[in-house]
Amino acid sequence: MKRCDTLVDIGRRQFLRGAGVATVGAATAIVTLPAPEARAATPLARVSYPSNRLANIADLKVDEAFDVAYPDDDAPGVLIKLGRAVPGGVGPDGDIVGFTTLCPHKGYLLNFNAADRTLNCPGHYSRFDCEAGGQQVWGHATQNLPQYAMRVDEKGDIYAEGVDELLHGRLSNVL
Amino acid sequence: MAYKRQIDRLPIIPANAREQTVVCHFCIVGCGYKAYSWDANTQGSTAPGENTFGVDLAVQQGADTEAWYAPSMYNVVKQDGRDVHLVIKPDAGCVVNSGLGSVRGARMAETMYSRARNTQLQRLTDPLVWRYGQMQPTSWEDALDLVARVTAAVIKDQGEDGLIVSAFDHGGAGGGYENTWGTGKLYFGAMKVKNIRIHNRPAYNSEVHGTRDMGVGELNNAYEDAELADTIVAVGTNALETQTNYFLNHWVPNLRGTSLDKKRTMMPDEPHAPAKIIIVDPRRTVTVNACEVEAGKENVLHLAINSGTDLALFNAIFTHIADQGWTDRAFIDASTAGSQGATADVSGPRQRGLQPRPPDQLRGRPRRQPHVDRGCRRDHGP
């Protein structure tokens, strides 16, 4: 029986080889049909962020929160000049940072506390360290505070170009 | 630099995802969560008809929204042998937490057993035995043999009273012995040991040792009591950290005064004010701070007793209550034996000498309907 099966297989392959010319013809016909355009739907690994001018260095004073919004008007945030170089800090002194002000726990609006340079939540007392990349000092969020990737041009204009954690209230940072 | 996931979007839960109501498997509070799962190859979209929330996810959602989940609430796990997306997020409809998530429960998905995300590496697969200066994996035969030989030697040398087991006791939705089921069966069921303690206590007792000696068992109140009480008495508990949503969702409304309407509706025949709170704890915890923020310092009494003097404090309070005659003699006589002696004992000179301070600080506090919470210290269990 075994031998018999093998012969059947050989015969099947023989049959397919013999039909080669016809197969090529059919394939050519298929290619001419309109195929779904896969390339247009190719997703990116991360969302594409706009490069938005948020302020000029001249607008900022040390330890004062400057209200901004990024990546769109419905996503409030702040720029803070800390007076000393910190992680994620930009500008000539490496001391300008930008964060969302939506608490990643329940989305309440954070307030800047200049005394210890933290962003504080009035809802459930969570606190985030502006000098340490938005590290949660204490609180209920399961992520550190989303921080802006920023650059400063030769005119002193400050641009945000990305966010490093998911913003509260949206399942894609760019809607 | 703070840890950042660099995750800036999450898969959207489709409208036809499997939805299950679950309870958090960490602390004793028992917060409700919703677990959504759907096939790895499918996804929802921002269109209201194509996601489980029925809302337009292409716009910013507000504070307290149900239609958002953090990266920690997402994972890829196997169900019936198939990879599925999993989201476990706080249940806004649960009366315990009303949509609030703690740093424990809001991480349930992230910490689920997932070969796709490597969390299986964090699971204990073999018994560990302390050998050569470190915990070493070994076989069940070897581990149980060691337990048997040590146990037999102790009993032979000191008798059964000399055998004291120190066990870990935790886990299983809403607390209990679930993830140490085998230990429980061995020591309670098979060996019936006389002495056992659990991870954070000298015996298998309440964490607030004095209260049970005074006849007050733990976990004897409804969470709603904390919304209605005139005064909350919190003994040895840092509830904001260890029973987060019980504190945030049930104590805070009373301290803020936002449960006043409920108090007036349920108890219309008495005056009501926002709650006052007495916290007995050697430490000034975040709970103390949060209570002061919500209720005002004038409504918070932090009794920072010396460690180990809680029973003396309770005796002092007991004495004061008895001295003032705030007792229901008929009820006590019908419910207890020798209560006259108890009053005499705690009023006696020996106990007076133990009192760390006369209870002057307590005088003048409201005395109706005290709500006593005996929560946890570093622990989350009962």
The mean pLDDT of chain A is 86
- Counting copies of identical and different chains, the oligomeric state is heterodimer
Helix content of chain A: 10-25%
Please give the count of helices of chain B.
12
Largest sheet of chain B: 4 strands, antiparallel
- The CATH topology of one domain in chain A turns out to be Rieske Iron-sulfur Protein
Uncertain ranges of chain A: 18-30
Under the CATH scheme, the architecture of one domain in chain A is 3-layer Sandwich
The CATH superfamily of the largest domain in chain B is known as Dimethylsulfoxide Reductase, domain 2
Question: How many whole angstroms does the radius of gyration of chain B measure?
Answer: 25 Å
| Helix content range of chain B | 25-40%
Describe this structure in words.
The complex is a heterodimer of chains A (175) and B (382). By secondary structure, chain A is α+β, with helices and mostly antiparallel strands. Chain A has two helices and ten strands. Chain A is globular and about 70 Å long. Chain A has a domain of 112 residues: Rieske Iron-sulfur Protein (3-layer Sandwich). With 382 residues, chain B is an alpha/beta fold. Chain B folds into four domains: 94 residues, Immunoglobulin-like (Sandwich); 34 residues, no CATH class; 48 residues, no CATH class; 100 residues, Dimethylsulfoxide Reductase, domain 2 (3-Layer(aba) Sandwich), CATH 3.40.228.10. Chain B has twelve helices and twelve strands. In chain B, the strands form four sheets. In chain B, strands 1-2-4-3 form a four-stranded antiparallel beta sheet, with no helix packed on it. Chain B has a four-stranded parallel beta sheet with strand order 11-10-9-12, covered by helices on one side. Chain B has a two-stranded antiparallel sheet with strand order 5-6. Classes of the chains: A alpha+beta (175), B alpha/beta (382).
